[in-house]
Amino acid sequence: MTRVCRACDEPIKDEDGVIVAHELGNSGPGWDIWAHRDHADDVELIDPVVLRIMCRIWAAQAAAQ
Length: 65
What we know:
two-stranded antiparallel sheet; single chain
C-alpha cells in the first residue's frame, strides 16, 4: 500500500510515516491520515474555509449575547 504525506503529497516509506488523524467515512470505517515524521506538525486538519465560516458564526453568536 502506498501512503502519501498529507503535508507535502510525497510517498511515505513505512519507517518514516506516522498517523496524524483518522477521517470517518459515510459508509465504512473511514481512513487514516498519514504524514512524514518531520511533517506531522505541519498537517492542517481543519479546512480553512470551514474554519473561516465557523469563526464568523461564533463571532455573531458572541455579539448576540
